[in-house]
Amino acid sequence: MASEKVLTFTDDNFEAAVLQSEIPVLVDFWATWCAPCKAIAPLIDGIAEEYEGKIKVGKVNVDESPGMPGKYGVRGIPTVILIKDGKVVDQVVGAVPKAQLEALIKKAL
């Protein structure tokens, strides 16, 4: 079950929730049918808990919100993108270990 700290981003709320955020935002592009997405879901939940107040953490379902993946060049999922001040800081593709996600986060803190 997803943590209540993990937000849901859509094509409709992405601008306000992510691009205009005053703190960095970790965005997980995923789909319900994606096994690697399910594999990293607990890591995303844990990061949301651990970094609460320092970063926002949220997910974009690529099937329900196809605009944002296209805009950010997402070709494979899961793709995790870190955005700070409305700009992409870095991204990783695939089911990566927690240490790699934390290294991504440290670039923006």
Automatic annotation (TrEMBL):
Record domain Thioredoxin: where: 1-109
Single Gene Ontology MF annotation: protein-disulfide reductase activity
UniProt site (Contributes to redox potential value): 35-36
Membrane-spanning residues: none
Catalytic residues as annotated in Swiss-Prot or TrEMBL: 34, 37
PROSITE patterns: THIOREDOXIN_1, THIOREDOXIN_2
Chain segments annotated as coiled-coil in the UniProt record: none
GO BP of this protein: cell redox homeostasis
Disulfide-bond pairs as recorded: 34-37
One Gene Ontology cellular component: cytosol
Keyword terms of this UniProt record: Disulfide bond, Electron transport, Redox-active center, Transport
Keyword Cytoplasm: no
The organism's place on the tree of life at top rank: Bacteria
Residues the UniProt record annotates as site (Deprotonates C-terminal active site Cys): 28
InterPro entries hit by this protein: Thioredoxin, Thioredoxin-like_sf, Thioredoxin_CS, Thioredoxin_domain
NCBIfam families attached to this UniProt entry: thioredoxin
Family indicated by similarity: Belongs to the thioredoxin family.
Protein name: Thioredoxin
